[in-house]
Design goal:
The chain is an alpha/beta fold. It is built from 13 helices and 7 strands. A 7-stranded mixed beta sheet has the order 3-2-1-4-5-7-6, sandwiched between helices. The longest helix has 17 residues. The protein starts with 10 loop residues before the first helix and ends in a 6-residue tail after the last strand.
């Protein structure tokens, strides 16, 4: 099956801010179609190296074929919170740069069989890694109403979280939910048409985050990535919604802090040192021209930080 991989978001900016050593080792933690990886590889010198990670089998297959002309590459199917395991097993550490392009890929949304989109009907799947057992149907059919309310409120930031959860439970009591059109029908019955698309986007996002444990994995992956960076190495993260961006922003802020003693202490006794510096104080966003050509770039925020302490292996 052919997939329509799109242009990488903020591609020029990623290369500009991430690649500080053209002979270094770099990790693309969200390989996707290989767009960012290709730009990085084209900029690296011959002895530079790139490791690509992705939980999706089809992404690994597509990208490895697309990038086969580059000899210094290594690809592995895994979630990005396993970056440390992947680098140790490949004997490629520490590294000079790590990239995350978060969220669901455009091509995954375009494939109805994956169940990520509310635009067309498909199975309630939403798994990034097809090898895992729990999918969106399991969440909708097996979670309690309280659990569904929590997901819709916390991961979707949906105003009508309680009513939608209640309607899911009512509907499934007579027949299990199997297809995305059934979920769309439920949300429509609660919301109506006026704000339907926004609520659908939030509900589908919430379920996808739960199925793939995205926020939990992101928090773990950021810490593991920090540990695998060499001194002076950079961590670049592109996020698309406030939940992801908040996690990244807070992680960088915490790593940048030095003393955490109460202000009334005359001298520092905590011995905490700053471990990273922000390369840009504000997130980098796409130009109007890029947004015009690639709508996915509209909500993208790129944050970059540089490690300031030695790699501890």
């Amino acid at each position: 099956m052919g997939y329509g991989f799109h242009e990488p978001v903020l591609g020029r900016e990623v290369v500009e801010y991430l690649v500080i050593d053209r002979r270094g080792k770099y990790v693309d933690c969200t390989l996707g179609g290989g767009g960012h990886s290709q730009l990085i590889l084209e900029f690296l010198e011959n002895d530079g190296f790139l490791i690509g990670l992705d939980a999706d089998t089809e992404a690994i297959q597509y990208a490895s074929q697309r990038l086969q002309r580059f000899p210094n590459t290594h690809f592995r199917q895994t979630f990005y919170d396993q970056i440390d395991v992947a680098l140790y097993e490949a004997d490629k550490y520490p590294v000079q740069g790590i990239l995350f392009d978060l969220g669901v890929s455009s091509w995954q949304i375009d494939v109805d069989e994956r169940g990520f989109s509310y635009q067309n009907d498909g199975p309630l799947d939403m798994r990034m890694d097809q090898r895992q057992s729990q999918n969106a149907a399991d969440v909708l059919n097996n979670y309690t109403q309280d659990q569904l309310e929590h997901i819709f409120r916390e991961f979707g930031e949906e105003r009508h979280w309680r009513a939608i959860a209640r309607e899911v439970v009512r509907t499934r009591s007579s027949q299990s939910l199997k297809n995305t059109k059934e979920l769309v029908k439920i949300v429509r019955s609660v919301i109506g048409e006026r704000h339907l698309n926004k609520s659908l986007a939030r509900i589908f996002q919430a379920i996808r985050i739960e199925v793939n444990r995205e926020l939990e994995r992101l928090e773990a992956a950021l810490e593991s990535s920090f540990q695998m960076l060499d001194k002076g190495g950079r961590l670049a993260v592109i996020s698309y919604h406030s939940l992801e961006d908040r996690i990244v922003k807070n992680f960088f802020k915490e790593k940048e802090r030095d003393c955490i003693c109460p202000p009334e202490f005359p001298t520092c006794v905590c011995d905490k040192v700053s471990e990273m510096r922000l390369v840009t104080r504000k997130p980098v966003t796409a130009s109007a021209e890029e947004v015009k050509n690639n709508q996915r770039a509209r909500s993208a925020k790129l944050r970059i930080a540089e490690k300031t302490i030695a790699f501890k292996g």
